[in-house]
Amino acid sequence: MKTKGIHHISAIVGHPQENVDFYEGILGLRLVKKTVNFDDPKTYHLYFGTDAGTPGSIITFFPWPGARQGRIGTGQVGVTGYAVPVGAYDFWKERLESFDIEVHEEERFGERYLTFEDVHGLKLEIVEREKGDSNPFQHEAIPLEYAIKGFAGAVLYSSDIEATDKVLTEELGLAKRAEDETYFRYEAEGEMGNIVDIKKEVNARGLMGAGTVHHIAWRAQDDAEQMMFSNQLRADGYHVTDIKDRNYFNAIYFREHGEILFEIATDSPGFAHDEPYETMGESLMLPAQYEPHRAQIEANLIPIHTSKK
């Protein structure tokens, strides 16, 4: 079994409008879906990605105003990485600094990274990559030749590096590509979200809260491939959930032995099946079981609007 790479990454944040202002307003991603947490409809579930919300570009958020701040550490995705076209590095450094965002620069496996935090403390980085299609989402302040293309990958903070190495290589089919003093590097066969690093030393144990990643999801082409992953994982002793219908994909979950929560999500049906592609993200979309309660749900949610800066 071989995944093509990351499908999406889901995180916990604070106020939803601050979340929209940062990811759409500053980073130039599209709010492709405004819905609710299917397990807790009193809060939003917001999806941001490329123009069509392509797998490998989707970051999702559970925004809880007033949520306690989490701590990034072992058992979590430590850093979420975005890929930009070659030649876009300086544009992004200047843009982030223009919003008074503290930016650091580092090199890893011969690549230059801009590292920074979002408004709620989530750790992010930007790196130039040749692979991947350009993002056609039009943002008035970001030329298309500089727009974020999707995920570059992620840095995993494992409590058991050997166990996480095993699940990446033996269960998900990533190839171990490189090692330096600080990281191990793995690569999947897809073009976006295909590079994953494990950091060798992480001091703190992660605590869930605002500014932390809840889970990382890996791509399955369809339901049949997802079932093959599930059967293989169960046979190898992992506890895998039943299939969860998330409306825009089907999902299964398991916690690998480095304590990071993994999901395997199907590429289909995608985000345009319940509203027109042209207006995705503008209206609150609810799954069928919550539609009869729309008025009550909307009354409990903080109004938000899209933001381009």
UniProtKB/TrEMBL annotation:
<dbReference type="InterPro" id="IPR004360">
    <property type="entry name" value="Glyas_Fos-R_dOase_dom"/>
</dbReference>
<dbReference type="InterPro" id="IPR029068">
    <property type="entry name" value="Glyas_Bleomycin-R_OHBP_Dase"/>
</dbReference>
<dbReference type="InterPro" id="IPR052537">
    <property type="entry name" value="Extradiol_RC_dioxygenase"/>
</dbReference>
<dbReference type="Pfam" id="PF00903">
    <property type="entry name" value="Glyoxalase"/>
</dbReference>
<dbReference type="GO" id="GO:0051213">
    <property type="term" value="F:dioxygenase activity"/>
</dbReference>
<dbReference type="InterPro" id="IPR037523">
    <property type="entry name" value="VOC_core"/>
</dbReference>
<protein>
    <submittedName>
        <fullName>Ring-cleaving dioxygenase</fullName>
    </submittedName>
</protein>
<keyword id="KW-0560">Oxidoreductase</keyword>
<feature type="domain" description="VOC">
    <location>
        <begin position="150"/>
        <end position="267"/>
    </location>
</feature>
<feature type="domain" description="VOC">
    <location>
        <begin position="5"/>
        <end position="129"/>
    </location>
</feature>
<keyword id="KW-0223">Dioxygenase</keyword>
